């Protein structure tokens, strides 16, 4: 592990950015979509498939991994990369979002949060220092600060309280992280749906001189136009020479429109979760394989795709698998969806380099809107 963490901006097209994040475990081409490996697995997929689809980096979840199998155990087994057989970059979130959304009987304080596990009710304490310690035990390449994420809509007082607490926790996380040239800790901009608070949070985090910055607390129920307005207010304040990560987002359209506002990195469970429930993402838009119209459709999802799941299996067979509850249906559709997301990112990167991102985005959205209209 010798390469220092870094970010190089290669091209811009409007506010859209094409770059490369350098880590000791390999380069991350941006804009990048990170498949979510919550508990050390991208659900219903082999990690070899995830890599072959084009992913440079995956995400692991601090909250889930600390509860099971335990961060100390993972460390004894060689760290998360070795444990799951993924020798490439890994980003771990701080666990804060899951503590707020999944855990029971939370007790918040300046020190941190005491919570009950959703698995067995056991009590745990998560502080900024403990979050960084756990992520260090896991051995992730990019680690996130602990923050407080409020669900929207929320009152102004609650948003401000969470934003200011998150800033104080960012400073503590930076101290706990220390000097690790080959790794990075990202701060998280909070501020709900209040542009001024978002700007205040971004300025304060930028002053900390962190290696990267995330925008959190969005895609939590607010309309897309509100999310985009928050990005429009936030991104220009964040340092241009550091990567920008929009947490938990999202749909292909969310990604396109967020790239247009300067975001470099994304993660979301949507492609795999949708695949497990019969929904496929394609260049022609979404295809719901549960629908009866597919029962005798011999066509593949996309005859031009390089993904075998999209190219080699009929819609009729995929429909049969989903309606029968067969595991293979979830596996094939998750494979298709992860592949499609990675192909979308590849197209975005190429379009930015060629100075035609706006045209690419318009053409892509128009194809989704036309839909899958070929006759059966």
Query: Spatial order of the strands in the main sheet?
Result: 4-14-13-12-11-10-6-5
Supply Rg. Answer: 20 Å
The chain-level structural class is alpha/beta
The span between the termini is 54 Å
Regions with pLDDT < 50 over 5+ consecutive residues?
none
Average pLDDT for all residues: 95
What features would you describe in this structure?
- This protein folds into 2 domains: 6-268, TIM Barrel (Alpha-Beta Barrel), CATH 3.20.20; 275-368, no CATH class.
- An 8-stranded parallel β-sheet has the order 4-14-13-12-11-10-6-5. A 3-stranded antiparallel β-sheet has the order 1-2-3. The protein has a 3-stranded antiparallel β-sheet with strand order 7-8-9.
- With 376 residues, it is an alpha/beta fold.
- α11 (270-276) runs antiparallel to α14 (327-353).
- It is globular.
- The model has no long low-confidence stretch (mean pLDDT 95).
- The protein is built from 15 helices and 16 strands.
Task: Give keywords.
single chain; 376 residues; TIM Barrel; 2 domains; three-stranded antiparallel β-sheet; globular
Could you give a quick summary of the protein structure above?
The chain is of the alpha/beta class and 376 residues long.
Fold blueprint:
Layout: E1 6-13, E2 16-23, E3 26-30, E4 32-35, H1 47-53, E5 58-61, H2 62-67, H3 71-76, H4 80-84, E6 90-93, H5 96-101, E7 104-108, E8 113-116, E9 123-126, H6 128-138, E10 142-144, H7 156-177, E11 184-189, H8 195-206, E12 212-215, H9 224-234, E13 244-246, H10 252-259, E14 265-268, H11 270-276, E15 279-282, E16 285-288, H12 308-311, H13 315-324, H14 327-353, H15 357-370
Helix pairs in contact: 6-7, 7-8, 8-9, 11-14, 13-14, 14-15
